[in-house]
Amino acid sequence: MARYSKVDRRKVLGEALSKHPFFTDEELAERFKVSVSTIRLDRGELGIPELRERTRVVAQEAYSTLKSLDDQELIGKLLELAIGERARSELLIDESMVLTKARVARGHYLFAQANSLAISLVDAPMALTGSVELKFLRPVQLGEIAVAEGIVLKRKQSKYWVQVSVKVDSEEVLRGTWVLFAFFGLEDVRETEME
To answer: How many CB atoms lie within 10 A of CB 75?
Structure first.
């Protein structure tokens, strides 16, 4: 990336963080080829808070848009949600989630994180999982943070196809494709045949 003047760098920095609020100061420093302290000064001048505060604000906005789930039903911490498009969540694997001997996450925690994220993408008051094609690619260790990203691949009437990828750092640990059904009332649940 080319070197910017201070004014230009701050303008581009502001645009970059408005589109991608989860960039760290270190990533931005590398991207703009300046020091971390320069990025912090630029953020301060632009009135852009640190990553932790940006994450909190984005998460609050995401939780307020949840439709198909109650916020207590979502497994993990919601980081981003654009209903009908994409979503992200993270789950810290703690002591209560691991197998005693192996010290790796029980699979149902990772599935629950991915499944609840997929359901959160459905634009309806209620959604149910119809089917899932899923692969666990590697065990997740105690203390690791699993970041799930979901995207809506296709929608046809009340049926959604959602792809979810769960990563630890940049390594994919779980991948799946969900078929979900949107419901707008209890009558829909009783009348709909799941294919």
So the answer is: 20
